[in-house]
Description:
By secondary structure, the protein is an alpha+beta fold. It has helices at about 40-50, 55-60, 75-80, 200-210, 210-220, 260-275; strands at about 5-10, 20, 100-105, 110-125, 135-150, 160-170, 230-240, 240-250, 250-255. The strands form two sheets. A six-stranded antiparallel beta sheet has the order 2-1-3-4-5-6, covered by helices on one side. Strands 7-8-9 form a three-stranded antiparallel beta sheet. A hairpin with a 7-residue loop joins strand 4 and strand 5 (about 135-150). Helix 4 (about 200-210) crosses helix 6 (about 260-275) and helix 5 (about 210-220) runs antiparallel to helix 6. The radius of gyration is 21 Å and the shape is globular.
Amino acid sequence: MTPKFKDLQIQGFRGFQDIELSNLGQVNLIVGTNNSGKTSLLEAISIFCNPLNPFRWLEVSKRRFFFNSISSLRPNIESIKWIFYKQEKRENLETENHFGAMTIQADGDMPIKKLEVEILELYGSAAVHSNEDTESYREGLELEIKVQERYPLFNINTDELEFYNSEKFQFWEDERFVYRKRRDALINNVTISPSYSYSETVRFTESIIKNENSKNEILNLIRLFDPCIKDIMILSPKKSSSILYLDHEKLGRIPLDVFGDGIKRTLAIALALQAATN
Length: 278
């Protein structure tokens, strides 16, 4: 039996600039150090199996971000952006937050051959009734998705017949997303992963981050995972939530939730120890 995934190549997904897996079988065991991309690999496969369903994109985007429940239909633009690979800071980039395009392609017993996705930032204006009579701008983005498929006509060998299926999704920050088309998964799949809550982590950090000595001890611990981490900070993109960010030498400010579970667990333990001093 030919495996669903025989060879898999991922470009521009989360921390993967370009990775290729070959000679995959029916059962594959993925082993790697903390923050090496094991969860990202499963997320990329999940997206690849059902790329034309926008709710799959929302689910994957929110899986790591503690401030949004996965079941919520209100997109968070920040979390969707971080599905894509972020280019390192360079002088010739017009903006610090430059996210590239994504390509996933595979060989095996499946209808999909290649997935190409581009991200386009959108800005819309909305009138605000106030004394100053100003306008506020809401942030959104559009995903343009192209899927190259094998054409399964009458169950005959049609490997030479190919066509592209394309779709565009527009997501607006914290605006309920409505999509009435029914999209069945091109490949049936289920992803099972642990569920963690980091609300306590933020609470601990708020009290500890003011203590420079405690903060340095915590930074020294998480630098064991990535020596390019310069600082830890709390930012509030929304009035109702606070998010932990790490200041990275190469990538700038990165939400903690983008990193692997190893560094998040270490930070949670370190913060709990600091909070329980004496």
